[in-house]
Amino acid sequence: MKVSVQAVAVWGKIAPSHSITAIMITDDQQTIVTGSQEGQICLWDLSSELKISSKEILFGHTASVTCLAKAREFEKQPFVVSATENGEMCVWNVTSGQCIENTKLPYRHTAIYYYHCSFRMTGEGWLLCCGEYQDVLIIDAKSLGVLHTLSSSLSSDWINCMCIVHSARIQEDSLVAVSVTGVLKVWDLSLSLNSIQERQSVCEKDSKSLDCINCQAVRFCTYTERLLLVVSSTCWQVYDYCDFSLLCTEFCKSGQCFAGGEVLAAYRLIIWTEDGHSYIYQLLNSGLSKSVYPADGKVLKETVYPHLLCFTGVKENKSFPFVMGFMNERKEPFYKVLFSGEASGRITLWHVPDVPVSTFDGLPKEIPITAVWTIQDNFDKHHSMSEGIIDHLCASKGGIGNAVVSSSVYIPTLDKLVCGCENGKIFVTLGLKTARARLLENLSLLKDNLPYKVLNGHSSRVTCLLYPHDKSVRFDPHWLLSGGQDSVVICWDIFTGGILHQFSLQSGPVTELLRSPENYRLKDHSIVCCVCSDHSVAILHLQKRVCLLHARKHLFPVKKIKFDPVENLLIVGCEDDSVYIWEIETGTLERHETGETAKAILTSIEDSECLVADALLPVSQESKRNKNAGYKPYSSYKHGMVAYNLIHTEKSSDKV
User: Is residue 124 within 8 Å of 116, Cβ to Cβ?
Assistant: First the structure.
């Protein structure tokens, strides 16, 4: 009989960091979904009065989130999809917080659009994806498998932005995209369904080179079915969708860069910038002239003049980057909402009026901020919030005040919780008893009866911890390793709290501590590996207390480390797909390979020779940890995908 284990996360008075990199509002306008640089997804409740409250944090990604999108018809299944920098994709149920499906593909997506035509398609629909690869990928919304590719007959390139064009008049769908070189392309989705299902080549039906570099957004006006909005970093333009003739161009102010835009209504647009401002324009004298022919025989286009009606701004002039979006809900309460997320973790909402107007003297009118919220606001609002799990140690005689935990490891065999802090101190206490006393608010037990130790050795933040004996008996059970921002690795005696040895690497902050694999040739010896922020890799012999190898020539961040047990080689794979092969005994660089040769070298060494980290999630914000373990999907609830509830209530009948 399987035993269900419930994961519980306990934070102190400081909320977890959530640097927003992607944001969306669900179709029912009841949930805001944000993705973060830390890899977590956060769900926020949105009330009918546009009040925000953080609800859940979903753990499952190991890299920064690049984009979010809905993954089903939301009325039937409340699913959203997230994608990350390292190719991970997850489908989440935003009602339950469960991960429905996940995969890892060799593609970095920057935009995803859900497409489903009920009377022409079977299945759950498609995810149309673009990013740092050529043209457009079609991914099955249910299995997350690659179905097909929308290719280009000419000038195949990366796609910067795209949108789905649905014509209610002729009941046909198209995909409009703009490449990084400024080429606009149109694929006919309705006529290509059979070709896609039969895996036949599908190319664009039309293309045009625009005078537009670094395009940020493209939007189709469903109200007129005639206008096409194209937003670049320096200007926004309006085109006639029938022949792609240019009708209007508006340049941004000095010092600003446009980041996106949306169509509010017929001949009314909203454009936003990278620094969180937005502008609402009314297009005057819009439309095409009737039967007017100039001397060259071409149809004369009537000029469209943009008139600035309203604008929005931010109260604080932050240097944080903004990600913004717009929701035009056609169901009650019929809100038009402009929303933004910041790297600081703050969400801002503006309620855009149905009919934006300027002031009486004709000047643009400012739209006030409707709501602002952060996860920390939730923590501050509920005074019944529990303290951090080691806050009682910081207030005691041996501790220090306001310690912020920067890394931690739990040792089940010893029931010891080890917490490294921002100030360089390391606290060692009993894990389960401390957690139980904290959850049950047994303060007397916390302060008087639970033993603990404070380890002093690092001069700055503790970035990573490792207890190697917990996974391999060849390591001495006394050894506890810590790495710090001071580029020092310390080997501690966990029972006495004394320092056994210090390894001074002088290579920047230590980002990872890894155990050597079991089948390593020197398996009787105690070997660990550490990675530093300057991309160097060091092999430390704990028993002899020496550094066997310090490989410093890697130009890019380390992505994968493997051992060749036969030749006694260290193989280091970097993010640029290059491979460095080091001779461990002599410390010399034997080979440096790139391209297909590098891939062949990495695949030739079995995964069993990979170095293994004890930590499940990144231990520091500076480290972007890439896991060597396979990102394998499961048929039901996904193992390793954890949702943490952020709702705080004072009702005793509610769940903890």
Answer: yes
Give the other-Cβ count within 10 Å of 530's Cβ.
25
Sign of CA dihedral 304, 308, 310, 311: positive
User: Nearest Cα to 623, choosing from 66, 34, 39, 20?
Assistant: 39
Of residues 551, 530, 403, 402, the one with CA closest to residue 468: 530
CATH code for the structural domain at 385-552: 2.130.10.10
Domain limits, the chain: 385-552, 556-605
State which H helix or E strand residue 360 sits in: none
CA end-to-end span of the chain? 25
User: Is residue 621 pLDDT above 80, yes or no?
Assistant: no
pLDDT band at 388 (very low <50, low <70, confident <90, very high): low
CA distance 194 to 201: 11
Contact 417, 429 (CB under 8 A): yes
Give residue for tokens 């493209």. Answer: 218
Q: Which residues pair with 129 in a beta bridge?
A: 112, 137
Q: What value, to the nearest 5°, has the Cα angle with vertex 17 and ends 16 and 23?
A: 115
Helix (H) or strand (E) holding 598: helix 595-604
pLDDT in tens, 300-348: 455 677 889 999 988 765 556 789 999 886 666 678 899 999 988 999 9
Whether 268 contacts 283, CB under 8 Å: yes
Mind giving me the DSSP string for 189-222? SGGGHHHHHTT--EE-SEEEE-S-SSEEEEEE-T
Query: What pLDDT is attached to residue 162?
Result: 94
Query: For the chain, what is the total number of helices (H) and then of strands (E)?
Result: 6, 47
What is the C-alpha to C-alpha distance for residues 187 and 442, in angstroms, rounded to an integer? 64
How far apart (Å, rounded) are the C-alpha atoms in residues 609 and 153?
44
Closest listed residue to residue 598, CA positions, set 567, 554, 632: 554
Q: What is the pTM of this model?
A: 0.74
* 8 Å CB contact between 460 and 485: yes
What is d(CA 266, CA 9) in angstroms, rounded to the nearest whole number? Answer: 48
Residue 396: strand, helix, or coil: coil
Token pair belonging to 205: 């039906």
DSSP for residue 374:
-
Contact by Cβ (8 Å): 175, 162: yes
Taking alpha carbons only, the member of 286, 311, 313, 309 closest to residue 356 is 309
Run of H or E residues at 433: helix 431-439
